[in-house]
Amino acid sequence: MAVNAGTVNVNNDQTGWSNADVMTALETVFSNLGMHGGTAKTGVPICTKWPGQTDSQPAQPYCNGFQGSNNPATTEFSHAGNNQLSWDNNRAERNFEVTAYGAIAYYMQETWQPTSINASTDTLTVPYNNVLTTGTELVFIPSGGTSDNAIGGLSLNQTVYVIRVSDTEIKVAANLTDAGNGQAITLTGAPVSGWSSTTKFFKPQAGSSNVTIETYQGDTLTFNVDATGLNICDGSSYVGNKVLSNANGTAGTLTENPYNSSGYITNVGTTSFTFDTRYWIQSEDNSDIESYDKPDTFHQGNVRQNLLGSDWTGRQGLISNRGPKVIEYCYASANTSAMKGTIVLKPRYSAYNYWDSYWKYTVPGTVTGGGGSGKDLKLRIHRWDSQSSSSYRGSISHIDIANVTDGWTAGATFTIPGASVGAEFETTPADYNIEFGTNTDETSTDAGDGICSIVTTNYGAGSTFFQKNDNGHYAVLKMRHDNSKKYKDSYYTFYIDRASSYTYRMCVKSGAYWETMNSLGTNANPPNQYFSDENNRGFYGFFDGIMGNNAGGDGTIDPNDTNYNYRQSFCTTSVPTDYKLRIKYWRAQSPQDDTFAVISFVQVIDDKIETYFTFSLPTAGFGVTSPGVDLDHLYHGHITRYTAYTNNSSNQARSLEVEMSVPNYQSGTAQPLNEGISFYTRTGDSSYGYLRNDGSNPSFQLSDRWAANINTPNYENDHDVVTYYRNADYDGISGTQDYYRPIKGIPLLNSFAPCPYYMPDDFVMIQVGTAPGLTQFRTGDTITVSASEIYTVIVASVEQSVTGLDDVSGASAIGILFCARTT
């Protein structure tokens, strides 16, 4: 048996290579090893650009879930859509008469009390509303009134139909046909007893049973109940700790809390109370949110709206404590489960809305540059709320992409009608249309006539990275382990340090999912400077998942700030591009585990091969036999590094270290191995059960140190793994007991119990003690045991010119070789 071995030369084995050349070569290595998993997808819209935006500016990184904490980094989206909506001081103050229909339902009858009449035009003045549209059926004083309460021309319990005149004026018609034709009933005067609470129009009782109430953010809903027990709840049915009360908010049992404490319903459950919606975020089912091939237990997408709870396991989305979730409201009986109905808060910009509202709009795939029929694009258009600065409130804050489709081009051309995205209450909604196409800045300050654009990406598979930045900043490996499992994939980001004092280090991070939605992704080209975590999410993307489990703090990548991340030198730091760079690899063959491979960066310096970053990634079999890793619950995210070790007890360069770690943010006690869920912990990593640390004396990794024991002092305080060796010439025993062989069945790691994985037998450790003393062992050298058993050196740790068993000073080279069988 022998491994499959190969070499990919960076930049065709020429000097002067670039970071992009390194990523292209690494991409080929992973392709040759069969590690690129998943299914390719091209032309996928991932974010929008404001007019004039460049790839060196991040996609809007802020959640905008509520006003106050996130002032805009930019307001460039106001360059589109005619800038700001008008300041709107109107809101509907809606009233409902609620009566029990036995224990079956609530009759939820909305009422309107006129305040004046213009008999010459047959017009009634009513409270501001968006509900009394032409054709709406009403009943005038269905019960409880007298003839003195009647409006002249109408009788008690009379059915009429609305003719809408304005937001505060109506006429009434005798039938639906007359309403459609504008034929109003002649009204002769005000009620004899004047306008009062008994002079009302009601929605008919029929059809009002458990009816859904749709209203705009900022409206008030007042309920007059015939008996106590009606409550307003978070969710779709009555739950005691979900009632919108201060007590529940304080206890932290609500999905959402209001903008401030004034939003709680202080007298909820009594015979009369008011739900002031200005303090509450809009309803949302998030049924349209998607991410490409994301575990279905994660919140899909990267749509920046709404707040999540403060518990660690609930933090997902663009910023650690924000992300999409279901927002529901209902009215419900505390006593009878069947008596309930839905309240839907629709988005609206007004002086009364304390939250940033957003509107959904679907762009047909058939537009110019679209993906074609059936490949529609779903957008969410967000506006700054009334509590924001007067210089930008009511203008567009950002535009998110909500779904995954493909086949689109970055120049797709379409127009979003203003009436569909918050301008429906404007005199001329078309003035607020938002144009998409070739990205163009506005013609002048506050002209609002700029053209937005979409950004597309390709998701690779098979022979290409999942994501790869053309300028060489980073690449993402999507490694498929088990297609039947929830965490079937591991995602690894590789990026090269751009910090001036630490250049030419390969940085690695891992996670259960790499999110690119509403980030520039592979299109990003940020300047060479440090950016905050939030801004970086708007550049390349980020690791998403359950905070503290399979996602952690600092889930982004930043080549400009890598001091606290997993990083290894992959070439010399002294004018590295003056030397050829190569990537070597060795992979086992079936029936051994042919998914196991070792990858090594080597460089040709003065005609000698120098070995640098050498590593392997987990296979699907890690921990399956013992201790029993199930990828429905855990994910593989560790990395194993192989390196010469020169700091044992005698400071001798005769040891080789096999080191495992979880490659993520590591600084003091803030690191992925902390015990107990914290901001940076990755408890869901399959190796966490071994690598966990209480944080008081943090270790970022554990390792085995394979050490030579030929004429080598191995002190008892060392934790070396030594290989068995006997030599009759020096030991004074029978030659039948001689032992000097490659060691196979290498545990990964020997320090783990039970051992979760053993390397395939073609990967071995070989101890050497040889003459002459200046003998060198380098990557690619061969060790011949017999004509049919030849090994190639992967990593060597050999000390030259030392005293061997022959006691000749400086005549021996002693150490350990990590090798792969090639013959």
Distance between the termini: 7 Å
Cα-atom Rg, whole angstroms?
Answer: 35 Å
Percent range for β-strand residues: 25-35%
Largest sheet: 10 strands, mixed
- Give a count of the beta strands, DSSP E runs of length 2 or more: 40
**In terms of structural class, how would the helical and strand content be classed?**
mainly beta
Query: Helical content, roughly?
Result: under 10%
Provide a count of the helices. Answer: 6
What is this structure, in a nutshell?
The protein is mostly beta strands and 823 residues long. 5% of the residues lie in helices and 30% in strands.
Describe the secondary structure blueprint for this structure.
Blueprint: E1 4-9, H1 19-32, E2 41-49, E3 93-101, E4 105-112, E5 116-118, E6 123-125, E7 137-140, E8 158-166, E9 169-173, H2 176-181, E10 201-202, E11 213-216, E12 220-225, E13 230-234, H3 246-251, E14 272-276, E15 329-333, E16 340-346, E17 358-363, E18 377-383, E19 396-401, E20 414-416, E21 434-436, E22 451-459, E23 467-468, E24 474-480, E25 489-496, E26 505-511, E27 514-515, H4 533-539, E28 542-543, E29 566-569, E30 580-587, E31 597-605, E32 608-616, E33 639-645, E34 655-661, H5 688-691, E35 701-707, E36 720-722, H6 728-731, E37 763-770, E38 782-786, E39 789-802, E40 812-821
Parallel strand pairs: 3-12, 11-16, 21-22, 35-36
Antiparallel strand pairs: 1-30, 2-22, 3-4, 4-10, 5-6, 6-9, 7-8, 7-10, 8-9, 12-14, 13-15, 15-16, 17-18, 18-19, 20-21, 23-24, 24-25, 25-26, 26-29, 27-28, 30-31, 31-32, 32-33, 33-34, 34-35, 37-40, 38-39, 39-40
